[in-house]
Amino acid sequence: MIPERVVETIHGPAFMHVSTRDERLRSSQVFAIGAVVHPDREMVTFFVPESRSENILNDLKNNGRVALTVGLVTHEAYQVKGSYLSSRPVDAQERTIQEIYRSKVLSSMMQAGYPEQIARPLVLGMVYQPSVAITFRVAEVFYSLLRAHKNVG
Q: Which end of the chain has fewer CB atoms at under 10 Å, N or C?
């Protein structure tokens, strides 16, 4: 089960990064634009731009392993690792979640002191639609703050 603090972090505002690997252990990486933890707290669905999803989806179909890293501007970060379950186009409700996510991240960056001329294009300038919703079952949860790392789940 995903700990409550990790659920809160995944629901934002956090920077999200997805990693997979191919059969030769070469990684594929992409930013996620929002995510949701399922009510059972054992599954997560994250959203990636369709234009950046090909390598990730190929890796997932070949070996099923995925890592989602979520980090706050405070440097508090978590990584959840698990096994691929499914993918599909995002629906209207998930597009709304993505818009809320982008607003939260922008607000967080501004509160942390990032100049608006950097924060706004970074968060709002990325083309993220159409997007793909990717669901996986979480097997491991890791916590990281600066140089401290420990397994929390």
A: N
